[in-house]
Amino acid sequence: MIEIKKTQEVLYNKNNHPFLIRKTYRKNGHTYCEVEFLETCSIRKVRKSVVDERSVKDRYAKDVCGVACIGNAKKVDHLKEYTIWKNMIERCYNPKNKYYHVYGGNDVSVCERWLCFEHFLEDLPLIEGYDEEKFYSGEIQLDKDKKQLNINNKVYSLETCTFVSQEENHSMRKLPKIVMKSVKTKCVAISENGSEIFVDHIPSFAKKYNLQASKIYECVKGIRKQHKGWRFRKWE
Questions:
Q1: Together in a domain, 102 and 41
Q2: What is the pTM of this model?
Q3: Most buried in the list 36, 127, 200, 216, measured by CB within 10 Å?
Q4: Which residues contact 213 (CB under 8 A, 6 or more apart)?
């Protein structure tokens, strides 16, 4: 790696977040920049072209509803988890959300740690009642009421949340019941050479072949086309 230069000029990205280029260097025939965002002190290494276009993002800037950030996590790798997290933030901090009056407008909040998607993702498997298979198939939902009965200013956090069935969740909140179609845990896996394997337990199959169960469920749902060369379809 050959370092080219350093600069102390303050620049701004498209979201008007100030940053410095700590160094610019070449690696494997490409030019990269190491940038430091002044508001959050976070550091990123990106292609110089991204910096030139001011497209470099501060992952720790509170750009989600003005209170939350993505952190060091990729939405595309955790679509289901991100949807749950984003909806939770929206309900609590976006007055335009149709459920805000039940949540944020009713003193429901999200703990400081979970205002960062990266940390929410880390805590998810630790939440009481979490089951990987049931989570990705949609059989269980995140709930903040069961542990906080008779408490007005409820909060979403690792200590106060649990996973419950859809029926139990809807019975504890005053929201229209939303019927979600669960994905069957059985599927057909097609390898790169076209061989088919009938899978009756996705998490076990994922572990055996060094795959991620969440991405297999997304393939079955049609959200993604393949995962590590494997394709999947429903086992009717």
A1: no
A2: 0.68
A3: 216
A4: 132, 133, 136, 202, 203, 206
My answer on whether 90 and 162 are in the same domain is yes
Beta bridge partner(s), residue 20: 10, 36
Containing structural domain, residue 146: 75-171
pLDDT digits (tens, 9 = 90+) for 96-130: 999 898 899 889 999 999 999 999 999 999 999 99
Q: What is the pLDDT of residues 145-202, one digit of tens each?
A: 889 987 778 999 999 999 998 777 766 554 444 333 444 568 999 998 888 898 888 8
The answer to whether residue 67 sits within a structural domain is no
127 and 100 within one domain: yes
Which residues share a beta bridge with 25?
A: 3, 32
